[in-house]
């Protein structure tokens, strides 16, 4: 059409100015290209035109795809495997979020023929990997596509890591560089579980979009079986402090003891002397329950026993690799979450709890313990203690009602799980301090505990802030902190974190007591009001 119009204009003897202008426009290269594109689209003449096939083309030759990727300093995001019989290389897996995955041009099972014009068949895997690592800029692949397989997209699975893992120390991982290291307590998003041994995941709140390989639960069970066959069986034991009856009088001296006992016998005196104050007209429940008088020993040397544990606390903490978690937002009508404080002896866990309850006793409260001793004048059953007979106490022990219990001065003392629930049912927030080996007993769907670990500051800072506190009694026994105490607190903290940090929802460093109290208040408020990741089993239906 354009050519016909231009020919007609040229054939005019005396063309008008409009005809001349039209001729100039149609002669313009840009206009000609526009009209040519319009004609091609109108005629649907825009498909690729392939050259004719050669006459003598082998029937068994496979179709080949040429893939060009632009690689800078980022990894390729794919792993390869070699068929030892044929010498061919294949794409083993494509890492989610990596360069190969974002390109959409490489798929698991594709046969790798060439890399930058060099054939790879028969080469050693290390040689091919080195070629890929050293390549920068454009990388040209020639691959024979795998038969396309339709796979359903898998929903993401959110888990909490229950163990530490380093791919560089795992000889079983197919590609250590593609692995992802994680630590106890890390939250992971698993995006691909198609491989029975190796999953693809990334850490939550990570800036990297590229996933990494992590061992699957099947792989973990396989490694566990190997360890069980190669190592002698070791029965699980819990750690409990020595009771007063287990320490001879000749072993207790003013120089080598640390005392925790009923508050009516001993009083902890701080620098400000605030611990001896009493609130006017208001009794703070839940503090007259310390059951232990024990010799100062390192955490690792205490007597092993399950004496103070509940029925479910004897649990191997390394039995699972991941714990599935879900996002939980506490409803305003739900009972408050149990607040559990954990920390090494001497770090100030009980003092933080005492101050928190003293500041707002209408909101926070501790559990009320059971005892077999006689009720004293001025005491009220259910306020200072639940006073019970020895027969009732023994019945509660047999039926696993106590989280922890012990004997002091011939009387039994115990803290029951029901006492936690009683506080929560009253609408108050129950705040307890707990030995770490009892975590499993309170980690239930009913209590939904929020576990706060109180970490000690540096030894130098501890010497500054804990140089004056001591214990006083009616016999005027004084016990100051020594350098060895600070070393043992630090060692106990490292041991406790290494074994139990996967259960910690929050960590507070008890540097300055007032600041730590504010941090504790903020953490508790966050636990009650903000969304949290909690075990998915807490939402599972109860089995009949």
Please report which band the strand proportion falls in: under 5%, 5-15%, 15-25%, 25-35%, 35-45% or over 45%: 15-25%
Return residue spans where pLDDT drops below 50 for at least 5 consecutive residues: 230-317, 470-477
Q: Number of DSSP helices? A: 13
Tell me the helix content: 25-40%
How many strands?
A: 25
Task: Please tell me the overall pLDDT.
Answer: 78
CATH topology (fold) name of the largest domain: Rossmann fold
Gist?
By secondary structure, the protein is of the alpha+beta class.
Notable characteristics:
Rossmann fold, Guanylate_kin-like_dom, 25 strands, Pdz3 Domain, alpha+beta, SH3 type barrels, six-stranded antiparallel sheet, 13 helices, MAGUK p55 subfamily member 4 isoform X3, 544 residues
Fold and architecture overview:
This protein is an alpha+beta fold. The protein folds into three domains: 65-144, PDZ domain (Pdz3 Domain, Roll); 157-230, SH3 Domains (SH3 type barrels, Roll); 244-539, Rossmann fold (3-Layer(aba) Sandwich), CATH 3.40.50.300. It is 25% helix and 22% strand. It has 13 helices and 25 strands. The strands form six sheets. Strands 1, 2, 3, 4, 5 and 6 form a six-stranded antiparallel β-sheet that branches. It has a six-stranded antiparallel β-sheet with strand order 10-9-8-7-14-25. A five-stranded parallel β-sheet has the order 16-21-15-22-24, sandwiched between helices. Helix 1 crosses helix 2 and helix 7 crosses helix 13 (513-529). Mean pLDDT is 78; it is low at 230-317 and 470-477. Residues 336-525 form the Guanylate kinase-like domain. Belongs to the MAGUK family. Residues 154-224 form the SH3 domain.
């Amino acid at each position: 059409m354009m050519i016909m119009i231009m020919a007609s204009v040229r054939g005019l003897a005396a063309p008008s100015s409009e005809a001349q202008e039209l001729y100039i426009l149609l002669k313009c290269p840009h206009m000609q290209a526009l009209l040519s594109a319009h004609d091609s689209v109108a005629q649907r003449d825009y498909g690729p035109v392939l050259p004719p096939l050669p006459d003598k083309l082998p029937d068994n030759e496979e179709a080949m795809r040429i893939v060009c990727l632009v690689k800078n300093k980022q990894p390729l995001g794919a792993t390869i495997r070699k068929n030892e019989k044929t010498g061919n290389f294949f794409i083993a897996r494509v890492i989610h979020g990596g360069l190969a995955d974002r390109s959409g041009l490489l798929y698991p099972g594709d046969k790798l023929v060439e890399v930058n014009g060099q054939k790879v068949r028969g080469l050693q895997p290390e040689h091919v990997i080195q070629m890929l690592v050293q390549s920068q800029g454009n990388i040209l692949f020639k691959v024979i596509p795998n038969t396309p397989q339709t796979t359903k997209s898998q929903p993401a699975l959110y888990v909490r890591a229950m163990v530490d893992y380093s791919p560089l120390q795992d000889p079983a991982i197919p590609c250590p560089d593609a692995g992802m290291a994680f630590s106890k307590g890390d939250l992971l998003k698993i995006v691909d579980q198609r491989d029975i041994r190796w999953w693809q995941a990334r850490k939550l709140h990570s800036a990297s979009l590229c996933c990494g390989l992590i061992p699957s639960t099947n792989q973990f069970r396989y490694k566990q079986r190997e360890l069980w066959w190669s190592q002698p069986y070791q029965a699980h034991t819990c750690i409990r402090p020595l009771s007063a009856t287990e320490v001879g009088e000749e072993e207790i001296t003013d120089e080598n003891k640390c005392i925790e006992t009923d508050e009516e016998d001993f009083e902890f005196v701080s620098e400000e002397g605030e611990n001896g104050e009493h609130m006017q007209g208001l009794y703070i429940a839940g503090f007259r329950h310390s059951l232990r008088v024990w010799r100062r020993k390192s955490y690792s040397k205490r007597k092993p026993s399950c004496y103070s544990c509940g029925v479910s606390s004897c649990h191997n903490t390394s039995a699972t690799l991941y714990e599935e978690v879900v996002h939980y937002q506490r409803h305003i009508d739900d009972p408050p979450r149990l607040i559990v404080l954990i920390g090494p002896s001497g770090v100030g866990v009980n003092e933080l709890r005492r101050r928190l309850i003293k500041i707002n006793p209408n909101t926070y409260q501790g559990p009320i313990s059971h005892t077999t001793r006689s009720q004293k004048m001025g005491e009220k059953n259910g306020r200072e203690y639940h006073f019970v007979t020895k027969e009732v106490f023994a019945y509660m022990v047999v039926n696993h009602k106590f989280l922890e219990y012990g004997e002091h001065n011939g009387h039994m003392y115990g803290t029951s799980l029901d006492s936690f629930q009683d506080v929560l049912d009253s609408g108050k927030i129950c705040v307890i301090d707990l030995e770490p080996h009892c975590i499993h007993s309170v980690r239930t769907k009913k209590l939904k505990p929020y576990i706060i670990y109180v970490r000690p500051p540096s030894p130098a800072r501890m010497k500054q802030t804990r140089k004056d506190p001591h214990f006083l009694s009616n016999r005027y026994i004084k016990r100051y902190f020594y350098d060895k105490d600070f070393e043992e607190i630090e060692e106990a903290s490292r041991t406790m974190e290494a074994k139990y940090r996967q259960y910690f929802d929050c960590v507070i460093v008890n540097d300055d007591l007032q600041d730590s109290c504010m941090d504790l208040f903020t953490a508790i408020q966050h636990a009650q009001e903000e969304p949290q990741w909690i075990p998915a089993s807490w939402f599972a239906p109860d089995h009949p």
